[in-house]
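TL;DR need structure tokens for one chain.
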Amino acid sequence: MPIVDIYNIKKEKVADIDLSDAIFDADVNEAAIYDVVRMQQAARRRGTAATKERGEISGGGKKPWRQKGTGRARAGTSRSPVWRGGGTIFGPHPRDFSLKVSKKVRRLALISALSMKTKSGNLVVLSDFPLAEIKTKSFQAVMERFQWGKALFIIDKPNPVLELSSRNIRGVKVLRSEGINVYDLLYYDQVVFLEPSIKDVQGVLSANG
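>> reply
TL;DR here they are.
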């Protein structure tokens, strides 16, 4: 059972927490991670690109000139794809890029990502993140104290002061525990849980097992 230290924002150890082997020390399933990240990336594609085919272009009902005798190539409509302003051949149309991945695989991928962060030492637990006011400088001071670069903060409930203090810092994201996902866990170098949020995540994943 992995034991993780709990720190305050002064980087002082205040306690430790026992984490579940099944969630934070499990075997990493790379195939599940690949499938879920691919699903998340596909879901972000808008799929709104659209072009008009010749039948959707207005006008062009009249034959531009007579069939023979002009010395020019035959033409049946000014909306032909070979004409400027004509329709597009095999152009893109709105579509849904989303992929389906089973709930079991999504859970397995999330557990694998959490286990990777724990084993690499890039998962940190804070007892709290108290800030008296919205101040980017105060948040940045904590980041520098822990020497964090790209960091993902997982919180258990809305925290406007923390969220607004961090929003102008590049490479930092604050996320509610129910929104935790594989892509963000892998994208950010450091994953920082507030103590209540890691208990929430562990409880939900244990219940779904």
